[in-house]
TrEMBL record:
Name of the protein in its database record: Transcriptional regulator
Family annotation (InterPro entries): ArsR-like_HTH, HTH_HxlR, WH-like_DNA-bd_sf, WH_DNA-bd_sf
Keyword NADP: no
UniProt-listed Pfam families: HxlR
Entry's Gene Ontology molecular function annotations: DNA binding
Top-level taxon of origin: Bacteria
SUPFAM superfamilies: Winged helix' DNA-binding domain (SSF46785)
Assigned keywords, A-Z: DNA-binding, Transcription, Transcription regulation
Domain (HTH hxlR-type) ranges: 14-112
Gene3D superfamilies, A to Z: Winged helix-like DNA-binding domain superfamily/Winged helix DNA-binding domain (1.10.10.10)
Length: 215
């Protein structure tokens, strides 16, 4: 197998070129995306990064650890398992990923028919595509999302808070109204006009969320 040469090996000192080397593999972004909000076990990553084989995931995680983008952590009780998370350095990429996501909306070759979004991908998409001017009053919700494309896949809980800007983090939002459902269906509701009744909705705040994305 030929040795892969870097841009630096060819005398190019450009930091942006090095960044593209770090991120350019087809599996790098999906793996890092699934680790941006919270640690995940190997099995969760294998479900969330669609199409990747266990062997490839093992290799890519090792490479991303060596590059400083991914770290191993030990989950506390009751899980008590080894997991992976995005490093603090990798999490600095969040605004860059958001800018790339907005830029890619204009791609003439982007194919979305028959595709969907994992729960973590969906909430990061929401932060990427949120209108600059959100709801007039602060909005707080608890999201409970699952990926119906993967039978038995776990559901994840998020706290959504929209004040000056939309922020979504892992965890509960005690006292807030709740939205439950499939993450790809939520994408259809916010981006394609699918009726909100396709989701399980508790309260009217969800309709404010939909209205804010509709502009």
């Amino acid at each position: 197998m030929p040795i892969k040469r870097s841009y630096a090996d060819h005398g190019d000192a450009c930091a942006t070129a090095h960044a593209m080397e770090l991120l350019g593999d087809r599996w790098t972004y999906p793996i890092v995306r699934e680790l941006m909000l919270a640690p995940k076990r190997f099995s969760e990553l294998a479900e969330g990064v669609r199409g990747i084989t266990p062997a490839t995931l093992t290799t890519r995680l090792r490479d991303l650890e060596s590059a400083g983008l991914v770290e191993r952590v030990e989950l506390p009780a009751p899980a008590r398992a080894t997991a992976y998370e995005a490093s603090a350095w990798a999490r600095e990429l969040a605004p860059i990923f958001e800018a790339l996501g907005r830029w890619a909306q204009a791609s003439p070759t982007r194919a979305v028919d028959g595709c969907g979004l994992t729960p973590d991908a969906m909430v990061q998409s929401m932060m990427t595509m949120a209108p600059e001017h959100g709801p007039e009053q602060p909005l707080e919700l608890e999201l409970r999302l699952r990926d119906d494309r993967e039978p038995g896949a776990p559901a994840y809980t998020y706290r959504l808070l929209w004040e000056q800007r939309l922020q979504i983090t892992r965890g509960q939002a005690p006292g807030a109204e709740v939205l439950e459902g499939d993450s790809s269906t939520l994408a259809g509701v916010l981006y394609e006009g699918v009726p909100v009744e396709e989701l399980r909705v508790h309260g009217d705040e969800v309709r404010r969320l939909v209205a804010a994305f509709a502009g």
